[in-house]
Automatic annotation (TrEMBL):
Residues 1-23 are annotated as: Disordered. Keywords: Methyltransferase, Transferase. This is Class I SAM-dependent methyltransferase. InterPro entries: SAM-dependent_MTases_sf. GO terms for molecular function: methyltransferase activity. It comes from the Bacteria. GO terms for biological process: methylation.
Amino acid sequence: MRVRTAGGRAARPVGAVTRGTTNPNRLRRMDRWIVAELTPALRAADPPPVAVDLGYGAAPWTAVELRSRLAAVRADVRVVGIEIEPERVAVAQRYARPPELTFRRGGFEVPLDGLDGQEGAGGPGRAPGAGGALLIRAANVLRQYEEAQVAEAWALLRARLAPGGLLVEGTCDEIGRRHVWVALDREGPRTLTLAARLGGLERPSDLAERLPKALIHRNVPGEPVHAFLRDLDRAWAAAAPYADFGARQRWIATARTVSADWPLVGGRRRWRLGELTVRWDAVAPAPA
């Protein structure tokens, strides 16, 4: 995943082709959280903010949907779908609506050159990352990589964020019922979010199979994320009487119990949506 440069610019996309599996509305839960998290920054951005859908897959549905959801807050937001496979980029062009929705070839280097005068990682005279993306969403991209490659990929992507921007990297199932993602800013990871369709969820740890690559192999005794999922399951079991009032009330009761021992971010309003966000430093991999 090393960046190859020529004249200061990436000579070729950085990364590997993904499977490309995609379905309409697959990322709706992640997008809902993103919109809530970034609404103040979207409204305040000047010039119009840029959002990136990295690795959108064989069809551009997720980029089209991201543009629609962000535009509900900021009508002139620009979404750039980036794919490493040239044929996928060619197919997506029929859905392009410049300048609000465009598609280009690229990888973890996130090529934004020529977009509102952006150049490299900030352009002449700019701080690194200035003029970058307010959002980079990388869903179901890093799952195929090795755990040891995650830190480098995160570093490349964070370098392309604008001040106040977010990198959202995670995994979901094929129809978008179960998601887990990490939110990072230019300094590093900040939070981990679990989101699910609560109907049919037997226990919170069912989401373990959707943990992002940085954590998927850490769900073992002695690791913080394992302890977090264990405590969620215990609280879920204790909240069984709330099931008579619906899975949502049981989830809220579970979150309230867990919040006594874990640094949850957000509150009942997010819990009602089947979300649970915890500070990254509480669940990060244990030091070697």
